[in-house]
């Protein structure tokens, strides 16, 4: 069984491999009862948005984790992957600006991410 930090790392790696932009992660342990970590990233296009989501799904399957939910459709500008302890939000730039989800997590600790450029 994956620990929440391992799932976070795996998700961040999948996002980075598909060139998610402005990726932020928040440690919500002790703040939110819903999940330990929240992640938000931006995709340059709808196609990239789905490539990022598919990369995350592939990595969680490889790890042996099978329980997750995805919200959004092929035409969505925002996909949410709920993996239990980790929730990833993948947006187009316009949708991310519109929804401004980071404000909801301001009580959490913003994590330093070591991403490849």
Shape: globular
pLDDT averaged residue by residue: 91
- Order of strands in the sheet with most strands: 3-4-5-2-1-6
Query: Helix count?
Result: 3
Largest sheet, strands/sense/barrel: 6 strands, mixed
Radius of gyration: 13 Å
Subcellular location: Cytoplasm
Protein name: Ribosomal silencing factor RsfS
Subunit structure: Interacts with ribosomal protein uL14 (rplN).
Family: Belongs to the Iojap/RsfS family.
Write a brief structural summary.
The protein is an alpha+beta fold and 117 residues long. It has a single domain, classed as Beta Polymerase, domain 2. It has helices at 4-17, 46-62, 93-99, and strands spanning 21-27, 37-43, 69-71, 78-82, 86-92, 109-110.
What does this structure look like?
This protein is of the alpha+beta class. The chain has a single domain, classed as Beta Polymerase, domain 2, CATH 3.30.460. It is built from 3 helices and 6 strands, in the order αββαβββαβ. α1 packs across α2 (about 45-60).
Topology readout:
Layout: H1 4-17, E1 21-27, E2 37-43, H2 46-62, E3 69-71, E4 78-82, E5 86-92, H3 93-99, E6 109-110
Parallel strand pairs: 2-5
Antiparallel strand pairs: 1-2, 1-6, 3-4, 4-5
Question: Which short descriptors sum up this protein?
Answer:
117 residues, alpha+beta, Beta Polymerase, domain 2, six-stranded mixed β-sheet, 3 helices, 32% helix, 26% strand, globular
